[in-house]
Every structure is written in C-alpha cells, then in structure tokens.
Amino acid sequence: MNKIINTDKAPKAIGPYSQAVLAGNTLYISGQVPINPETGAVVEGGIKEQTEQVMKNIEAILTEAGYTFADVVKSTCLLSTMDNFAAMNEVYGKYYSVNPPARAAYAVQKLPLGVMVEIETIAVK
C-alpha cells in the first residue's frame, strides 16, 4: 500500500498531487519549486537562491519520510533556460558531493509560478 508523505516544512501542493508518495521502499517526491513554506511565496533572488530553496524543500520531505540525500537515486531538474544550468549545478552539487544520483536536466518553456527551477526526486532504501 502507498503512503502519502506531507510536511509543513515544505510548500503545500499547488495542484492535485501529493508532496511525496512512499511505495514500498521507494519515495517519489513531486517536483519542488522555490516556495518558502513559511511565507508561501517564491523566494527572491536568482537561480542560486531558488535552487537552494528547492533543495531545502526536498530535504524536508526526505526527512519527514525518514530518508536522506544519500538515499536519492534519481533527480530530474527542469530549468526555465539552460543558461541557468551551471549556477543550478553548483548549488545542487553541494547536496550530492559523494555518490551523486542519476540525473536529467531539461530546459522547458515555462514553469509554475514563473520560477526558474523545479526538481523532482526519487529515493530508495
């Protein structure tokens, strides 16, 4: 049976989806955008600040489910432009300095709320 994972330390879903779903020993985290869960607003600043908030949101969900970044096996990074790839990668890399997960990164036409980055994550224990 699947278990829905929710925490108030990450932004509430802005649509008909869960923050994360635990299916067996696999945790599927929905794409996280740079919303500060305390204010409900998109963080100010550029791609580095937005990526940092996204990673904090992912960490909060991982923690709520009893997982860590070491359990992450796959990430998908969606960017508003590939011009932000290097800066996003710099922040992202701080969270996966050892044995980073598999990953894909794409530029998309538009992201929710006009943000610069969204990252979805899969973790396995």
In short:
With 125 residues, the protein is an alpha+beta fold. It has helices at 47-65, 85-95; strands spanning 3-5, 20-23, 26-32, 72-79, 102-107, 117-124.
Question: In CATH's first tier, which class applies?
Answer: Alpha Beta
How many domains in all? 1
Q: In terms of quaternary structure, what is this? A: single chain
> What is the rounded distance between the termini?
16 Å
**What is the second-level CATH architecture?**
2-Layer Sandwich
Helix content: 10-25%
Average pLDDT number: 97
* Principal-axes shape call: globular
Number of strand elements? 6
Largest sheet: 6 strands, mixed
Strand order of the largest sheet: 1-2-3-6-4-5
Radius of gyration: 13 Å
- Output the structural class: alpha+beta
Indicate the low-confidence ranges by residue numbers.
none
CATH superfamily: RutC-like
From the 3D structure, determine the CATH topology.
Answer: 60s Ribosomal Protein L30, Chain: A
Helix count?
A: 2
Strand content: 25-35%
| Strand/helix succession | EEEHEHEE
